[in-house]
Amino acid sequence: MFSMLLISSMTFLIALVVMTISTILAKKTILDREKNSPYECGFDPKGSGRIPFSLRFFLIAVIFLIFDVEVTLLLPIASAFNLSNLFTWFLTSLIFLFILLLGLYYEWSQGALDWS
């Protein structure tokens, strides 16, 4: 227990010394207003951050993320084909795909996927 306390204290002390030395030796730059202001790809960072955006774009992005995760869940199904019997593999894959299609139908019926 004492050795852990000693090692933790030494680690903290070494980190503190290194940070102090780097702060002392760091080159002080002249404060320049333009260099210290955040760069926001040409947008004014001082303006309002509450610019409205399309809710449709947001819903499509969320659906893309959800189905992107499902693709990562579908990939191991192909590799599990050799590790299980055919009936169990087929039934599990069919149920999983049915749940995905049910979710897609639900999103479509709610109008989130209205492409018109």
UniProtKB/TrEMBL annotation:
It is a multi-pass membrane protein. GO terms for cellular component: mitochondrial membrane; NADH dehydrogenase complex. It is found in: Membrane; Mitochondrion membrane. Its EC number is 7.1.1.2. The keyword Nucleotide-binding does not apply. The keyword Coiled coil does not apply. GO terms for molecular function: NADH dehydrogenase (ubiquinone) activity. It is an enzyme of class 7 (translocase). The chain crosses the membrane at residues 53-75, 87-106. It catalyses: a ubiquinone + NADH + 5 H(+)(in) = a ubiquinol + NAD(+) + 4 H(+)(out). Residues 1-26 form the signal peptide. Keywords: Electron transport, Membrane, Mitochondrion, NAD, Respiratory chain, Signal, Translocase, Transmembrane, Transmembrane helix, Transport, Ubiquinone. Core subunit of the mitochondrial membrane respiratory chain NADH dehydrogenase (Complex I) which catalyzes electron transfer from NADH through the respiratory chain, using ubiquinone as an electron acceptor. Essential for the catalytic activity of complex I. Belongs to the complex I subunit 3 family. This is NADH-ubiquinone oxidoreductase chain 3.
